[in-house]
Design brief:
This protein has 121 residues and is an alpha+beta fold. It has two helices and six strands, in the order αββββββα. Strands 1, 2, 3, 4, 5 and 6 form a six-stranded antiparallel beta sheet that branches. The longest helix is centred in the first third of the chain and has 10 residues.
Length: 121
């Protein structure tokens, strides 16, 4: 049986780390790839999360602040993730800042160290 689906708009891809779990965001990234993509805002610019994957990591309350970046790995294998509302981690491998080219997460963090202390909305 057919069902109705509303028209997808660019605003549908906006993320809210306070209300969405890592699994919900991961599913959005799969649904909205390549257009409209998923994004959040960083320093009043759109930050598009181009490639992300889910790994079931549930952090303790004392481990890290929710809605912030975390780092895992050695100097050769750097991985960065965002802690979501249910304390699971959404790992990000590529992102794109508005007006810039797409880049891998390690290179982005090297050029924007302050993102490691940034708390997303």
């Amino acid at each position: 049986e057919a069902s109705y689906c509303g028209k997808i708009s660019k605003e549908d891809g906006e993320l809210s780390f306070q209300t969405q779990s890592a699994e919900e965001i991961y599913n959005l990234s799969r649904a909205y790839s390549p257009w409209p993509g998923i994004y959040t805002y960083y320093q009043n610019k759109r930050l598009v999360l181009e490639t992300c994957y889910l790994d079931v990591w549930v952090l303790g309350k004392e481990d890290v602040c929710v809605w912030s970046f975390i780092y895992w790995g050695s100097w050769k294998n750097k991985e960065y993730g965002i802690v979501c509302k249910d304390r699971t981690v959404l790992w990000v491998s590529h992102l794109k800042l508005e007006g810039k080219k797409s880049t891998d997460i390690a290179s982005f963090v090297n050029g924007n160290k302050e993102i490691l202390k940034y708390i997303f909305d």
